[in-house]
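Aim 2, interim progress. The first record below pairs a target sequence with its structure tokens.
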Amino acid sequence: MSDIQEQIQKERQSAREVCDLDATSAECAAAWDAVEELSAEAAHQKQNAPQKSSLEKYCDDNPDALECRVYED
């Protein structure tokens, strides 16, 4: 997920640079469209990411807790 965030930052910086030259140009609009599309994709990925249960979150923070032990047969 951090890769898409980095790409969003790069595209945002690029859009700012393009729009500093001419804020009414088609290139400026296209640059911000690219930022918007990447942001939408990031939101979509976040929405579809499997959500951890409260026990899974607890065990991530406290792997040595009794509740988090895994017994194999």
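The second target in this work package is listed in the same format:
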Amino acid sequence: MSDLETRQLRYFVAVAEECHFGRAAERLGMAQPPLSRAIRDLERQLGVQLLVRTTRQVALTPAGETLLADARAALEAVGAAERRARSAGRPQPTLRLALKADYDGGLLPKILDAYDVLPVELLLGGRDEQVPALRDGRADVGIMPMPSDDRGLDCEPLLTGPKLVAVAATDPLAARTSLRLSDLVGRVLPDGTPAEKGGMDPAPSGTRYRDLSQIFNLVEVGGNVWFLPEWVARRFPRPDLTYLPVEDLDPVTLVVAWPSESRSTAVATFVRVAKELASSQRLWASMSP
């Protein structure tokens, strides 16, 4: 039996995700008959049925469900390998750093000053965009809050601090010295999720994450609150906002992360520099009056 080809996997994933040969063919930019033949050839090659076909729909068999998960991972790995190879082969290679603006704990300028192996290319993104960038090869290293799913990544902690809630200065809650999540019932986050859930639920599908100034403006006019690390709040004092600790919110840890399979000395040096500077910053903070 010959090895599977990425073309076959790409065809199968399209059909499995669309549950329709016509839509899958349109997505792939090809005619439907050759796509149908390719899937039948794949089933013969594997010796299993992957799809149940009816006149109205296409459904996955248990074998198809298994192949879909593995095919997605395989195609993602191939794409990441291509992007990393192209990056490494550029005449002037760079270290691609993924992060969310203003979420670096004040470390980024110091790291860039101390790191001299490669030029650093910043890949700025919204919440939760750093992990996909590391996995698909767009980034070599990232600085971010500890990801909830760190599969395929190695992480080193840099800073740990409380998570605060930002409320409008005119909000009755602003007079309090601390809050609990139950105090936030009836208020929502900028992405529309209920604030009493602690900001841990994913944003509704299609939500577009705003930049900090937009989020602050939404909170200042009332109706919205927002959770943020203490180190972000410290950098953005605003007269129309009040930052309060939330007793039952877990602290947030800032980490430097990179793909587990990375063997790059440039990445290793960046991680070492980031850890050393974070350690120095923690030491300085502990000695400050």
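Residues 201-207 have pLDDT under 50 and may be disordered. This observation will shape the mutagenesis plan for the next reporting period.
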